[in-house]
Design a protein that fits this description.
heterodimer; A: alpha+beta; Nuclear Transport Factor 2, Chain: A; 3 domains; 5-stranded antiparallel sheet; 19 strands; 31% helix; disordered N terminus; B: 350 residues; alpha+beta; Serine Threonine Protein Phosphatase 5, Tetratricopeptide repeat; two-stranded parallel ribbon; globular
Chain lengths: 406, 350
């Protein structure tokens, strides 16, 4: 009943994308080293496709059925099951072979299959770290890094025993905006890219089913977004409606969406107001050596800024600021004039910058977000605040381009 | 869901005179019992199910183990729209005679009616495990796979299964043909080819309702339906069986769009219509069979077979159905013996 020839086309259709490889993802400075991920349905999916490619369809069917036992609402699994069943009765030409199958939905599931398999095959190796996580605050226990190109969410732990090195914990398939990333405006159905953090934990009872088991808003648009004129709001990290295990890679209105079981696993580690969520089009990875070097460079720059502020030498102090500097209410010139005037009246200044986090902003421009507890004391004024600065590398020098309270 | 009424088709003429003849022979031997089963079958045919049930119960009171009687009882329950009783009867039969494929097949049909396609699939796989060349079970299994696929697609693609136009045309087996019943049931694997390719009499429901049930009668010339009879080894019967086999293969290959299998039923000196060359005739058949979009279904009523030496004619009513065309014709096939096979030498339709 089942002949080999019957399945050739079917298998080729799978192989055509299942083998979509491990294309060198334009990542600098080092191509990401790849190991195999082990979370979620991906390992089983990969095995199923391997069986199909080898024309072991009965075994593929058994695996698919056991996959569906584990994930009963996994639409991609049901599609594969349908194809495997149909292949027993007739010639299968393509993935989602049902006569009159809605093309867009089949395309969505095909995209999910490709995305999941790529994510599975291209997990980052442990000795490389995302470039963005240069330094976490001591009390930030975890950080989230999202790679929109791969539709993958990575969870890292702040490994304090190893000098705050980010330690890979898990990675998950994720869904982003229907029209991709780099959000610019309200309603553009895109997911923002940048350095954010979790700002809330919305109680499940008050959530519509669409958001699944939980929702965690993030602070889009942040200071940098506003400065760039990016608009919009209501970007959340949330779960999946009850009628499906997962959603296609491009399906939300801009939110980052996880399967409920994944969201629940991640949620345990989220700290409202603290946990960084860094969203990138294409995560850059650094070796630990390069990571250490970049982190030390920045810490030196921050320390020099702090020391020069204490020196009350306003010219030296202002050298740390870009001519393009802008705060919420001041241009560089206004800021410089005010600093000169204020510093002239002081006999001494003591500045502590502690518990700092340093996150590189994804994107072409070299921008770093620095957040710390600032304790300012001087002969005539004391002030404690949480400060956030954006540093930009200009001509090889790190310069402050924005600062304000966090 | 298939309305049960759709299963209540006229029961096409109960096969061969031979089966009846054997029935008569038994009648002489053990009159009280022997007439019972043919009588039951007659009552079923006439749609007198309560009476048929009464008769078969009386028969089973004496022979509670009898496979044929219990099989007919399951059939009667099915016709009476008592699926629970029918399922129980056939299930018990599979437990006592696991080597019989027919009860498994009919269980599958009943499960499929209740949309329990996974159970239907398991039953059919059991039927095929015992009888690897059991064509009807394969065809039914194909339908079950298609149904299961459709369900999976519904879940995958969020479709409403009501939109699915897949027809349920699973065939209920009407007769226990691979067994001689009673104690001497032989697990016959592989089963006789005549069973594997039992000619199907597809009776389409007159209503336009999407699901339709098909009734498959038992193969003509198959082994006896009576508990103690032995299959006759009469050469004419053997020839008749072989011809039936060719017709069955021919119709089945045609329905499967298996052009190679279809052409294999024709002799090398087949008289092509209008004096076409063999090649252009084959090409034309290829286009009309394999090239046709959608399903083809070819079935036929009980053939009348006349054998004369190495030649034979079979006359029957042929029912053809495809996406674009359906109709019935009177067909005459002329056969010529080639070794132990009978091949089509002439084909005429009126």
């Amino acid at each position: 009943m089942i002949t080999a020839s019957k399945f050739v086309a079917f298998v080729l259709a799978f192989a055509g994308w299942a083998l979509v490889g491990i294309a060198a993802p334009g990542i600098t400075p080092t191509a990401p080293p790849l190991v195999v991920s082990d979370s979620g349905p991906e390992p089983q999916l990969a095995k199923i496709f391997k069986e199909i490619e080898s024309n072991r369809l009965d075994s593929a069917m058994q695996m698919t059925e056991s996959l569906l036992k584990q994930y009963p609402n996994f639409r991609l699994g049901h599609l594969i099951k349908g194809d495997l069943l149909l292949a027993r009765t007739s010639h299968i030409k393509s993935f989602g072979a049902m006569n009159g199958a809605p093309v867009d939905r089949v395309d969505d599931l095909r995209a999910e299959a490709i995305t999941r398999l790529k994510g599975y095959r291209e997990k980052p190796e442990t000795k490389f770290v995302p470039r963005y996580l240069l330094q976490m605050q001591r009390d930030q226990r975890f950080a989230i890094v999202v790679d929109t190109k791969r539709s993958r969410l990575y969870l890292y732990e702040n490994d304090l025993k190893n000098g705050g090195r980010p330690r890979f914990v898990a990675d998950y398939y994720m869904t982003q905006g229907k029209l991709g990333s780099d959000k610019l405006s309200e309603g553009d159905k895109k997911t923002p890219t940048g350095v954010y953090h979790v700002t809330g934990n919305l109680p499940r009872q008050k959530l519509a089913d669409l958001y699944g088991t939980g929702a965690f808003p993030i602070n889009y648009p942040n200071e940098w977004d506003k400065r760039q004129g990016r608009k919009g709001s209501g970007i959340w990290l949330h779960g999946t409606p009850s009628n499906t295990f997962s959603r296609p890679p491009l399906a939300s209105d801009g939110c980052v969406v996880l399967a409920n079981q994944d969201l629940d696993a991640v949620a345990k580690n989220l700290q409202v107001g603290l946990t960084p969520v860094i969203i990138s089009n294409s995560v850059e990875w650094l070796s630990l050596d390069d990571w250490t070097k970049e982190r030390d460079d920045l810490n030196r720059a921050i320390e020099a800024w702090r020391a020069d502020w204490e020196s009350r030498d306003t010219e030296r102090y202002l050298k740390h600021y870009s001519k393009r500097f802008k705060s919420a209410d001041q241009s560089y010139e206004e800021f410089a004039a005010q600093k000169k005037q204020v510093n002239a009246g002081k006999e001494w200044i003591k500045v502590k910058a502690e518990n700092a986090s340093v996150f590189r902003n994804p994107g072409k421009e070299e921008v770093v977000v620095v957040t710390f507890d600032q304790d300012y004391r001087s002969s005539n004024l004391n002030n404690q605040m949480k400060k956030r600065q954006y540093w930009l590398r200009e001509n090889g020098q790190w310069k402050i381009i924005y600062e304000g309270s966090a | 869901m298939i309305p049960n009424s759709l299963l209540l088709h006229r029961f096409p003429l109960l096969k061969t005179c031979r089966a009846l003849a054997i029935g008569l022979a038994i009648c002489v031997a053990t009159p009280a019992l022997a007439n019972n089963l043919p009588e039951v079958q007659r009552l079923i045919k006439q749609g007198q199910y309560p009476q048929a049930l009464e008769k078969v119960d009386a028969y089973l009171a004496d022979k509670p183990k009898d496979a044929q009687g219990r099989f007919l009882k399951g059939l009667i329950y099915t016709e009476m729209n008592k699926p629970a009783e029918a399922i129980a009867t056939f299930t018990k039969l599979t437990e006592d005679y696991p080597e019989l494929p027919e009860p498994y097949n009919n269980l599958a049909v009943l499960y499929a009616q209740q949309k329990q396609y996974d159970k239907a699939r398991t039953s059919l796989e059991m039927a095929i495990r015992t009888h690897p060349s059991y064509a009807i079970a394969y065809e039914n299994l194909g339908d079950v796979y298609a149904k299961l696929a459709s369900q999976a697609y519904d879940k995958a693609l969020q479709l409403d299964s009501a939109n699915s136009a897949t027809q349920n045309k699973m065939a209920l087996i009407r007769d226990l043909i691979s067994t001689s019943g009673k104690g001497n049931v032989k697990p016959t694997a592989p089963i006789p080819a005549s069973v594997a390719s039992a000619p199907a009499t597809m009776t389409k429901t007159p209503t336009a309702a999407a699901p339709s049930a098909s009734v498959v009668t038992s193969s003509p010339g198959a082994a006896s339906t009576s508990p103690s009879a032995k299959p006759a080894a009469d050469p004419a019967n053997v020839a008749s069986d072989d011809i039936s086999k060719t017709i069955a293969n021919w119709a089945s290959a045609w329905s499967r769009k298996d052009v190679k299998g279809y052409l294999a039923q024709y002799s090398s000196d087949f008289k092509t219509p209008k004096g076409m060359s063999r090649k252009s005739w084959e090409d034309e058949r290829e286009t009309r069979i394999a090239g046709k979009s959608g399903k083809i279904s070819v079935s036929y009523d009980e053939p009348q077979i006349n054998i004369s030496g190495d030649r034979a004619t079979a006359k029957f009513r042929q029912h053809y159905k495809s996406a674009g065309l359906s109709g019935s014709t009177n067909k005459t096939l002329v056969f010529v013996r080639s070794g132990n096979r009978w091949l089509i030498q002439e084909e005429n339709a009126r």
